Fold this protein.
Amino acid sequence: MNKKDIASIRKQFKPDNEYMNIREVFNVYVQKETGDIFHHVSTPFEMLERETQDLFYDNFKKVLTGRVNEKLFPLKFNRDIEENTQHLLYQSLQTNDSEGWQNQMLALVERMSETIVYDFDTVVTFIYGEYRAPTSKRNAESNEGGNDQVYANPFILCSVNQTSFPQPALVFDYIEKEFKSHSDVDPVIHLKKPLSGFLYPTFEDHAPNVNHVLYSAKKANEPDERFIEDILHCTEATTAMEEKDGFELIVSRVADDKVDSTMLSNIYEEIGSIIQTNEEEEEEESPVLDYHDVEHILTTSGIEGVDTEKVKDSFQTILQNEAHEFKAESLLPKKVKIKTEVATISLPPQFLKNMKYINHEGKKCLLLEVNEGIEVEGFQLEELK
């Protein structure tokens, strides 16, 4: 499931949308420390007030927001586990019995409670819905297709949310015209910042893939391995940061730690070109790079002494897998950080060519070529002659 697929389903969570039908929402209140289920209730989504629906829509979109392999991870189920979560989720999609579906979701919540204990109460929300997509564009001559013929794909989305109790406050009563203290005993559910969640199944070009699930982490590059392995029963997630770190180690090893700013700029430019070509050709799969691709990139970027065996051996030594394929999008940073004892500078990758590391009059200097004047705290610096 790539970013295009995720964006496509995320934008469907809005009122009065013919392409998204949410059958019911199932909320489960779980007590802290003990993990006991205090209360659960299922409600037809269309019976909720519009304001409440909007709060849930925002929550669902938050679960599906973030970069792939940073906050969102398409994961494959571990088939070696008997009665794994894939089996539970798949069976729940096949039933038209609301009570049976709720019991299966409760079983999943119990597994969550046995695995992860929070020091605050949580609310686990499930929705059972249908994601609808036209089978084809409408034919201008026959006027067939389009919205008349759609795929109706059932799905389950889960959102785990923290609760907290409001702090006592001083309020002004407009009716009585007086100031008085106010303390609300009802816990607040933080729908804007879900702790985790998932979407099952994943969708690839509107078609469901029941062998994968999309896991959503709370923070970028910090997936909860307990949730992934013990609750979802999926294989370990590799973050974009881990991919980037592994790639950088391989580049350093192949280049014998002899890399300058121009070489780095060329490397990022090559990776960016691969990603752009993939987007222009509207490929469904995100581009990946094996050791042959990395060899080509490093050679083209001006690194000397690159050969197939050296790159292949670096893959095996650093990643313990010479057949590993890097996700190209994980390797291209938005900003490149340049760390010195004096300051840390952030630059877009394309501007690395403007930077030089030089020795001037016996002093190590960072030279940055600029096209315009330099502003510091609102002051325009005067150019030294």
